[in-house]
Known about the structure:
By secondary structure, this protein is α+β, with helices and mostly antiparallel strands. 43% of the residues lie in helices and 23% in strands. The protein is built from eleven helices and 13 strands. It is elongated.
Amino acid sequence: MLETSARLLRLLSLLQTRRDWSGADLADRLGVTDRTVRRDIDKLRSLGYPVHAVTGTAGGYRLGAGADLPPLLLDDDEAVAVAIGLRTASGGTIAGIEETSVRALAKLEQVLPSRLRHRVHALQSVTLPIPHSGPTVDSATLTAIAGACRANERLRFDYRGHDGTESLRDVEPHRLVHTGRRWYLVAYDTGRGDWRTFRVDRLTPRVPTGPRFVPRDPPAEDMAAYTAHGLSTRAYRHQAVITLHMSAEEAAEHISPTSGVLEPVDEGHCTLRAGANHLDGIAVWISLIGCEFDVVEPPELIAKLRDMAGRIARAADRAE
């Protein structure tokens, strides 16, 4: 009986880790036959877990949503990660979930083993969050966007641009990207016929969502890097490519992903791609990083640096 119970818990844990499982994959993971998997699935169903059969050539199973939330099976590291995430969410960038996060954290801490409770409390006791003062995102908006991304459903929303202009957008949503301060939606804009990045705090979804669509090939394999490049470089009038005389790891301490994109060259050099509406801003910013650098492009930036260096030198001479 103990072996069967342990196997059922393991089976439930596997069903919770991904959307669909084939019977053969479950049997291989559990070290049992396909027939045993079918019997165990029936036992889970008898206990109230909505395990649905998945049609297809190989067949399979999917854990569906039920009337009640089923127990979640978490290992030690997962439990600690959830607790820390709930604590962080109580003061983060998503509006409306602060109180809910605290309640969920209180429930989780009640059932945490003492060894894990001590780990969570130790981290919380020495951590002081800096209050967030930037724009927040409504949790219902994030949920609506995430659902449309997953279901491949067109999304319409009212959008406020950086200059305050309002527009109605019709998009094929692809991914949500979080920079730590802001949330962005990467989507194919059907009206513009191109991929676009939208700040989530500036959009208001219209319901219901639109029809289903066949997903397009994304504009890049690494959507996080694609978004960072768009936010730091592509959106500006001028784009600069600069070789920094420091490693990419060292440069990352000074340059955030939304300020510039870093590409390692060797142990002592990296390439920085950044943009600005005025080259003077890039010239000043690069000079303040604190390392030697070479301008690859544009040549106009070199002229700006020479002009700035001359003004600084003359000011220093006059001060003597």
